[in-house]
């Protein structure tokens, strides 16, 4: 049996006890691969390798231009192997092949962007207030970075971490979600092929509460960068405090999509569907809270329901499929329990709310796109991140009410506002307490623009310039050009 292995210090290794995990296709529950299942000891080995590689200085001290060249090579290889990577992502997550191809383009773009940024920060000379001196501020790599990623955008989320960390001169131990490791394993092969030195990038596989927890606890790790759920994020933050590690947290969202009556309603409606149901709603920035102006609420929602009922569920490899399955049986059950809560709370179920009955979908973890109307902000279904194809709808009459509803959340990841009135749009955008606000659009994210959350959606930023700065320490170097005795202690 071919076992996908972990990569530590330039070697592809199995787990100590030969434990493995089957990787399942969520469309039909077939085993698509078997992966080594690491344990605490494997995580420790990987951290040791990353520590030695960092302390040796071989990676952080080569020129940033050289590091950039190697990272450009990884981008080239991702483009070369795009179709294989996209197929693996669809097999592993169930997302449509068109989505996976788009992800691969984004991922190559992220590697290119950070490869290009690698040698662009030469530090800054600052004005020293002390005579006969000069001061400069430089950014240095932070050290050994543990990176932990989720299952919904497996390689995309990994790329946001790997590319800037390596470009800045750090060494890395990455643990992908145990459910969806395949594309991350493949990219590790590409990192090896690009010639990035041994020990600089290490891949460990396995469960969060063993392998992941060790990465967070290990005192040789300098930074933990985590993308995943809020509950895991809180655990990681608490554990990291013990050794005062730097942390970067990209967590969940419950993202409002505000539609004013003066919007281009055809576009707003079309994009409200995309916002809520893209990748079966398993998206951190899914527009899962629709907030619609009273005047248009009834007609907007009834048209939306008609469109929702036509969404074609199916195999991600079928080019006519519009949405794939949920990632797992457990996750679908979680979504179902939220729908039950919504009903108990008195929300009106307008569409979906059940598994599809077509015979060809019975082996997959499918759930029909769902709409709840008559929702209020005190409902759990409005406040909790369901992370599935479930949309709640609230109504408002004034702009201030729309802002107040949208901000009434522990989360602050992203949101959108739809109106043709740019004064109003800009006012609402300024008032929303979120890391990203889209005006007359939903979902765009790209390498150049920072991504991250306000409030409990996270700490720190990925992408853009802040996405590489997160992987650096700032050092002030002061030079006395005319040293003299002070005679304080005579
Ligand atoms: N903000 C963003 O950019 C963003 C992007 C993608 C996903 N997400 C969020 O991710 C969540 C879905 O992903 P998930 O279900 O894989 O999340 P999760 O928190 O269950 O798992 C994420 C990762 O953490 C690991 N993990 C679990 N327990 C751990 C522990 N104790 N110590 C260390 N690691 C541990 C898991 O093995 C996995 O690799 C959603 O909440 C979604 O909003 C956020
Ligand atoms: C930010 N994004 C959309 C890539 C992944 C969120 O789950």
Automatic annotation (TrEMBL):
Pathway: Amine and polyamine biosynthesis; betaine biosynthesis via choline pathway; betaine from betaine aldehyde: step 1/1. Residues 12-477 form the Aldehyde dehydrogenase domain. PROSITE patterns: ALDEHYDE_DEHYDR_CYS (PS00070), ALDEHYDE_DEHYDR_GLU (PS00687). It holds the Pfam family Aldedh. One of its GO terms (molecular function) is betaine-aldehyde dehydrogenase (NAD+) activity. GO terms for biological process: glycine betaine biosynthetic process from choline. The active site is at residue 250. Keywords: NAD, Oxidoreductase. Its EC number is 1.2.1.8. It is an enzyme of class 1 (oxidoreductase). The keyword Oxidoreductase applies. The keyword Oxidoreductase applies. Belongs to the aldehyde dehydrogenase family. PANTHER family: BETAINE ALDEHYDE DEHYDROGENASE (PTHR43860), BETAINE ALDEHYDE DEHYDROGENASE-RELATED (PTHR43860:SF2). This is Betaine-aldehyde dehydrogenase. It comes from Virgibacillus salinus. The lineage of its organism: Bacteria, Bacillati, Bacillota, Bacilli, Bacillales.
